[in-house]
Design a protein that fits this description.
The protein is α+β, with helices and mostly antiparallel strands. Among the domains are: 5-141, ibrinogen binding protein from staphylococcus aureus domain (ibrinogen binding protein from staphylococcus aureus fold, Roll), CATH 2.30.310; 322-402, no CATH class; 453-573, no CATH class. The chain contains 14 helices and 22 strands. It has helices at residues 5-19, 74-83, 176-184, 191-198, 204-214, 225-239, 276-321, 324-340, 373-417, 421-433, 445-448, 471-481, 510-522, 567-573, and strands at 23-31, 34-40, 47-51, 58-61, 87-93, 99-107, 113-121, 128-132, 138-141, 246-250, 253-258, 269-272, 351-355, 362-366, 455-458, 464-467, 487-491, 499-501, 532-538, 542-543, 554-555, 559-563. A six-stranded antiparallel β-sheet has the order 15-16-18-17-19-22. The longest helix is centred in the middle third of the chain and has 46 residues, at 276-321. The two termini are 34 Å apart.
Length: 580
């Protein structure tokens, strides 16, 4: 979501105390649309972030660290020249519009005092950061806007700055009579849209909240609506005197935030913050992590699938080459027939018609007249031996190709199970070690040697169940962590996680066994299947062949159980893993 004018109002009011009086110490532009001002004053060192991104335009104090480009962009160099050392004297928002003016006391090249204004326009795809001189003339801006790009106004150095035109009313200063009058002029416009059209700072979500407070059962036109709804709106804004910044989550990912708790928003969980600045910082930082995670995982999946497609084509060619045995056996048969009829062949003879002893039919065999009868037979035997040797090599290579495909298949399951960037880095490192990813993009070896923790669960009977998140964790879990009499589980002939029931002493209650098997099925390639076969054995019956890829094991003395993959069991039994 983009920052609305209402939440921006709280942010601006909060940051006045920490930033007014501070001097600009450093200016960075970590991203093309983002500027970070590092400020300083006795006893404080706040950092102010201004983003003009189309989907994340915002302004707030930040605690996050951002990687800066090696060469600073031109606008960053311009700001450094003019605002470093300048003192912030005021921060003001235009009503509840998404426009913030930061007043600065600076000095020109001659050391003479001058007043500058840094304007943050936070309006989605129309966002901009603009520096003005004392006369309100644009010195430069993050984005230049020509008359061809906008019929409303141009933004270029040397032009007088004009705020985007707006006829909306400020709900913090509007009277009840004016508000009721405006509500009575709605006409045929839908109420939700109308509230956002004539009141500053009202996003569609806030309009939903106002209408929910007016009619929780669902909005319908009502007699004396203007006066009643006006009272609801004014009551809502009075509550903002005691803000409770709240962030809303679905599946662990934030999707909305508001200055107070919005009862109209359906969420799985919420998180409250002491300040709107902390909330905005946390929200966009988490979204940045989610986007980076999704992008990296998608790239790794694409890379892995690309290698699997290539190996699949190789396997198909190898399968086709298995037709060579028929040719090999025919050459042996022809050599045997020539040898058996060698007394009938004269040097220089071009063909031999003889009986095939296996079928009883007559066959015609071409001969090389330049060779002796024995040499003709040896020629077919040599072709037979060559094709047989080629067949043995093909079978060996097919086995290696199948191993590689099985390894990459498990990697895809691991990528699906990853929850953090660190876990993705471990899988990327694994791919690089196997030669499937560039080494330059991998995590350092020391970091990779300290992998993240495996999944940890507590069964209904109180047993600890562990499950690996990638091949390296699977190896560590099975070959180092497990005791000989722990119970080891894995989906039958399907790529998936290694799962352990620890402390089982060779035997576990049926409920625990079913839960562990369901988790193994859920953490496998068959997670969306109805029923999945899961093998289980004592850990002492599991072995790792010499030279096998990470995660590859063989086992015996096992039993098989049929279960359904269950996300409900996975989430219900999940326990904190702690720090690695």
């Amino acid at each position: 979501m983009t920052l609305d004018g209402l939440t921006l109002h709280l942010i601006v009011e909060e940051l006045k105390e920490p930033v007014i009086g501070c001097k600009v110490d450093r200016v960075h532009q970590p991203q093309p649309d983002t500027v970070v001002l590092t400020l300083r004053a006795p006893g404080k060192n706040p950092r102010l972030l201004i983003s003009a991104g189309a989907s994340d335009s915002r302004l707030h104090l930040t605690q996050q660290k951002y990687a800066n480009p090696i060469s600073p962009p031109m606008f960053c160099m311009f700001l450094r020249k003019h605002v470093i050392g300048a003192k912030i004297t005021d921060v003001q928002q235009t009503g509840l519009e998404r426009i913030v003016r930061i007043s600065l006391e600076a000095k020109d090249e001659l050391g003479l005092p001058r007043t500058l204004t840094l304007v943050a326009e936070l309006m989605g795809k129309y966002s901009n950061v603009i520096l003005l001189n004392e006369q309100g003339v644009i010195m430069d801006s993050l984005r230049h806007v020509s008359s061809a790009q906008s019929r409303v106004r141009s933004v270029f150095p040397g032009l007088n700055y004009e705020e985007p035109p707006s006829s909306k009313l400020n709900p913090l200063t509007i009277s009840r009579a004016t508000l009721a009058e405006m509500l009575g002029k709605r006409g045929k416009t839908k109420m939700k849209s109308y509230l956002s059209q004539f009141l500053q700072g009202i996003s569609s979500q806030t309009a939903d909240e106002l209408l929910w407070r007016y009619m929780p059962e669902g909005y319908e036109e009502h007699p004396r609506e203007a006066e009643r709804l006006a009272d609801v709106i004014l009551g809502f804004f009075k509550e903002l005197a005691s803000p409770r910044p709240t962030m809303y989550f679905r599946d662990g990912v934030p999707f909305f935030f508001a200055p107070r708790h919005y009862r109209s928003v359906a969420a799985q969980s919420v998180q409250r913050f002491d300040t709107a600045n902390a909330m905005g910082d946390a929200y966009y930082h988490r979204l940045r992590e989610v986007e980076a995670f999704t992008r990296k995982r998608d790239n790794l999946i694409k890379l892995t699938q690309k290698h699997m497609d290539r190996l699949g084509q190789t396997l198909q060619k190898q399968l086709e080459s298995l037709e060579q045995p028929k040719k090999a056996e025919r050459h042996k048969m022809l050599g045997d027939i020539i040898t058996a009829n060698i007394y009938r062949i004269s040097r220089g003879q071009r063909s031999l018609v003889a009986q095939d002893y296996e079928t009883g039919e007559e066959v015609s065999i071409e001969l090389d007249p330049r060779l002796s009868p024995a040499a003709n037979a040896q020629q077919h035997y040599k072709r037979y031996n060559k094709l047989k040797a080629s067949l043995d090599i093909t079978i060996s290579r097919m086995a290696e190709t199948k191993k590689e495909l099985a390894f990459l298949d498990i990697v895809l399951v691991s990528l699906d199970a990853c929850e953090t960037l660190n876990e993705l880095a471990e899988v990327e490192y694994e791919l690089a070690r196997a030669g499937y990813a560039p080494q330059a993009k991998t995590v350092p070896q020391k970091s990779a040697q300290a992998p993240s923790q495996p999944h940890r669960f507590i069964s209904s009977d109180g047993y600890v169940i562990l499950a690996g998140k990638n091949n390296r964790q699977n190896d560590l879990l099975t070959m180092r962590t497990a005791e000989p009499d722990d119970i080891w589980l894995h989906t039958k002939d399907i790529p998936g996680a290694h799962v352990l029931i620890t402390g089982a002493k060779g035997n576990a209650p049926e409920t625990t066994l079913l839960e562990a098997a369901s988790i193994a099925a859920y953490l496998s390639k068959a997670k969306n299947s109805g029923k999945v076969a899961v093998d289980y054995a004592l850990r002492k019956n599991v072995r790792k062949p010499s030279g096998a890829r990470p995660g590859m094991v063989i086992y015996d003395n096992y039993q098989t159980i049929l279960v359904s993959p269950s996300r409900e069991i996975f989430e219900r039994l999940a326990a904190p893993t702690g720090n690695p």
